[in-house]
Design a protein that fits this description.
This protein is of the alpha+beta class. It has one domain: ph1033 like domains (ph1033 like fold). The chain has four helices and six strands. The protein has a six-stranded mixed sheet with strand order 2-5-4-3-1-6. The longest helix is centred in the C-terminal third of the chain and has 11 residues. It is globular. The chain binds a DNA duplex through loops.
DNA sequence: GCCAACGTTGGC
DNA sequence: GCCAACGTTGGC
C-alpha cells in the first residue's frame, strides 16, 4: 500500500516536539487517543513508514513544527487500563482493548514552523482538514500534496 | 476566559 | 432511536 500521511495534534504543555526530541531514539508511543474516529485511523489505517505532521495546538505559535514517521503499527494503549492515568477508561477490558496507539519517530524538527496563519492564507491548503470548521479531531489524514506543501513552507 | 462546534451520555 | 444536557476541544 502506498505511503499515507497524517497529522497529530499535541498541546506542547502536555507533550511538545522538544519532548519528543529528548525521547530515546527520538521515538515514543502516541497514547491517550479517546475518540473513535481517530481510533479507527490508528487501528485500521496507519502503516509503518507513513508520514506524520506534528502540530502544536493551544500554543504560541499554533503551527506544524516537524514531521515524524510511524515506526510501529497499532497495539493496545496501556493507559486505558491504568486507574492512575488520566486517560484511564473504566469500561475498557483487557481481552478487547478499546483504544490503540502507534509509535512514532521524529524525522525532522522544522527550523521554520509552518503556522496556522500561513496555512489559512495559502489557497493550496484550503481543503486541509485542520482548518475545516469545527474540526476537533486530534488525528487526521493529510493528502500528499498537502504534505508536500507543508514541507515546502518549512524550508 | 469566552464560546462555537462537536462527541458522548442517558432518560424516555 | 431521539434529543437535551453535558463535557471537551481549541482558536480567538
Amino acid at each position: 500500500m502506498a505511503k499515507k500521511y497524517w497529522l497529530f495534534k499535541s498541546e506542547p504543555g502536555e507533550f511538545s516536539i522538544d519532548d519528543l526530541e529528548k525521547c530515546p531514539g527520538k521515538r515514543t508511543y502516541w497514547d491517550g487517543i479517546r475518540n473513535y474516529q481517530a481510533r479507527n485511523f490508528i487501528r485500521d489505517k496507519m502503516r509503518k513508514g507513513d508520514g506524520v505532521l506534528f502540530y502544536h495546538s493551544n500554543a504560541d505559535p499554533l503551527a506544524v513544527v516537524g514531521h515524524c514517521e510511524i515506526v510501529k503499527e497499532a497495539y493496545p494503549d496501556h493507559t486505558q487500563f491504568d486507574p492512575d492515568n488520566k486517560h484511564f477508561d473504566p469500561e475498557a477490558i483487557q481481552k478487547e482493548p478499546r483504544w490503540f496507539m502507534v509509535d512514532i519517530k521524529l524525522k525532522e524538527k522544522f527550523k521554520t514552523p509552518v503556522t496556522l496563519k500561513q496555512i489559512k492564507e495559502n489557497p493550496k491548503m484550503k481543503d486541509f482538514r485542520l482548518i475545516q470548521r469545527g474540526n476537533r479531531l486530534s488525528v487526521m489524514s493529510v493528502t500528499k500534496s498537502e504534505w508536500d506543501e507543508i514541507i515546502r513552507l518549512s524550508r
